[in-house]
């Protein structure tokens, strides 16, 4: 099949070319996880090949080289994999795929015109040295998290043409429903270079393994009615093994993978997990699943590895469950995020900014230890009934329908008036219609019944409302049950 870019992807390539024309030799292509950065990179590699020039793409794991090669094969683009003993070792091809380790061993790339660096936020000394020592090579770094200190000294600019919010609106990605669960206590935990040590995270994470498993069992049945594909980000190897055992004790098949397992085993496990009929309920890992993991029907993510400052890792993890299912969007209207790490509230301000605005500057200083929220702030951030994180625009919980006490419309601060956002009439209509969609998807309602319920409630037909399901509130369920009883009684009289 041929490579067919989406409009925003084509716009991104135009922006990169304009950047080169303006004299910026090294640029970062920023796009959220799931935006199709690999496809954009392939289009650039192919365009370079068409001019009979050489290009290469560097990835930091051999398994990622194979995945990228398979993607090129999918689009029938000739290329080679620069790795000794690889069946696609074809050094004569204009396009070469290789690992960062291979580049480090080779030291050079003769006659190279374009270099694409995957996951460029993970800087490697030899790759940086190669970029500096080859001023004739144009360089594009790919990343969804360009927050590493020093990137501005390597790359001359960042291209950002699409935001996470826009991709959610276009249904390329799905929104997250975030639940704050029992948190791993990192009070006074040891830090290394500003980040909590893996040893501390592991030992403390294992203290709440039972809670993590219990919360997943509760939520997957409460929201989906059955187990759904899940990925778990654990604190370390021992924590992963402990989680796998506790899930097995509860009757569920979760497999823990780590750096200690050989590449073939990990590849086989992920390949099995990606199948629609897999018997694996979930995968558990530390950071393996944050790169090259593209299983779109994962419905739940569990955060069980606390980060003190790594916004990049937090965003990369969430991105793995936000991939949409473009060929069957109704099968995945949202994804669930169960936060046992405290990361979501810890990084919420930065995440909201990136979500809505994208990234347009480098070295912004985001990767610094965050101030911990107080217990009061954490409590106020979540619905008291179901622990779902409040959305800024609504006082109605998107998960259970609980209505929190309304804020004053106007708040006086130092002589100034500040208007506060509150849920409006349309929000209530949208919530009700979303609950109807949940009943259609999971409880056998048809469209006609949902329309009738809405018309009975509001006196008008639904208009300009999206069809994303939302867990019905207790009040909705009571009204639906009362309506059904009235209908059955009326039918009996007839």
Main attributes?
Rossmann fold, alpha/beta, 3 domains, 494 residues, single chain, globular
Total of domains: 3
What fold name goes in the CATH topology slot of the largest domain? Rossmann fold
Query: Largest sheet, order of strands side by side?
Result: 3-4-2-5-6-1-7
What's the level 1 CATH class of the largest domain? Alpha Beta
Strand content: 5-15%
For the sheet with most strands, the description reads: 7 strands, parallel
Number of helices: 18
**Which structural class is indicated by helix and strand composition?**
alpha/beta
- The name of the CATH superfamily of the largest domain reads P-loop containing nucleotide triphosphate hydrolases
Furnish the topology, listing elements before pairings.
Elements: H1 7-21, E1 26-30, H2 37-50, E2 54-59, H3 62-74, E3 80-81, E4 95-99, H4 100-106, E5 112-117, H5 125-133, E6 138-143, H6 151-154, E7 158-160, H7 164-169, E8 176-180, E9 191-192, E10 195-196, H8 198-205, H9 209-224, E11 230-233, H10 237-249, E12 254-256, H11 263-273, E13 282-285, E14 300-303, H12 311-319, E15 335-339, H13 343-346, H14 348-357, H15 375-381, E16 410-413, E17 416-419, H16 425-443, H17 447-458, H18 474-493
Parallel strand pairs: 1-6, 1-7, 2-4, 2-5, 3-4, 5-6, 8-15, 11-13, 11-14, 12-13, 14-15
Antiparallel strand pairs: 9-10, 16-17
